[in-house]
């Protein structure tokens, strides 16, 4: 099937996500294209912010804004207090 270049690039990029076949990325791309410009802009900002501000906790492996994460920092503090 022929897709215009901008949509084929979006489909190709989405298909690199784990667990996606070819149908889901195509559906995601078309749903994204159907969104308002404001919603797409907000989603793009959310992606960039998440990429920039999140990391994995070196103790538990959960996503966190700081390493070690808040719950691991509290556990360490609680153990040292006891
Ligand atoms: Zn942690």
Characterize the structure shown:
- This protein is mostly helical and 82 residues long.
- 62% of the residues lie in helices and 5% in strands.
- It has 4 helices and 2 strands; from the N terminus they run αααββα.
- The protein has a two-stranded antiparallel sheet.
- Helix 1 (5-14) packs across helix 2 (23-34).
- The longest helix has 17 residues, at 37-53.
- The protein is elongated, with a radius of gyration of 19 Å.
- 4% of the residues are buried.
Shape: elongated
- What is the H/E order? HHHEEH
What level of helicity do the residues show?
A: 55-70%
How many beta-strand segments?
2
Evaluate the radius of gyration.
Answer: 19 Å
Summing up helix and strand content along with how strands pair, one would put the structural category as mainly alpha
How would you sum up the major sheet? 2 strands, antiparallel
Biggest β-sheet: strands ordered side by side in the sheet: 1-2
Q: Which band does the percent of strand residues land in? A: under 5%
Spans where pLDDT lies below 50 across 5 or more residues? none
């Amino acid at each position: 099937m022929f897709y215009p270049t901008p949509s084929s690039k979006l489909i190709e990029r989405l298909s690199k996500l784990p667990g996606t076949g070819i149908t889901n990325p195509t559906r995601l791309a078309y749903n994204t294209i159907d969104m308002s410009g404001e919603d797409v802009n907000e989603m793009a900002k959310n992606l960039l912010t998440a990429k920039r501000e999140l990391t994995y906790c070196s103790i538990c492996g959960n996503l966190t804004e700081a390493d070690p994460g808040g719950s691991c920092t509290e556990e360490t503090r609680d153990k040292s207090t006891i």
